[in-house]
Amino acid sequence: xxxxxxxxxxxATDHPEDVITTYALGSCVALIxxxxxxxxxxxxxxALPDSRVDPEKAKNQPAYFADLAVPLxxxxxxxxxxxxxxxxxxxVGGAQMLDPQGIFDIGRRNILEIKKLLWQNxxxxxxxxxxxxxxxTVSLFVGEGTVVVSSQSKKYEL
Length: 158
What we know:
By secondary structure, the chain is α+β, with helices and mostly antiparallel strands. The protein has helices at residues 55-60, 66-79, 106-120, and strands spanning 2-4, 10-13, 19-25, 29-35, 40-46, 88-93, 127-130, 136-141, 146-151, 154-157.
């Protein structure tokens, strides 16, 4: 089954035939977590680094914020008996879009917050395609554990 997630949404699945896709990552970051041994994958489309800016939205859409999305997804895997040593993490997005002077620098702040939370759990991304000035679309093929990124006219495996 194909799952499309939008801004602030997330999904985890253990169906090997599933594909999770999110479109048009600008300053947003896709956090992708894979447990190959279990054919389980998850993705969150994170928009902002810190949930304190909108506590109401944080209650209803925790994956909108890095500080809530990272622990949410890690706990999802742990609830299934998957240890943090059995997962791999990939990051896509975090571009500087519509902010040429870097005043808000949302993309970079998203990346840093996600990495900080991963490091606190003794984790780090095994691959990433972050920063720059281009929008990206990303798909996770759960059964294979592969991640495909599309950006402008390029398509490549991460």
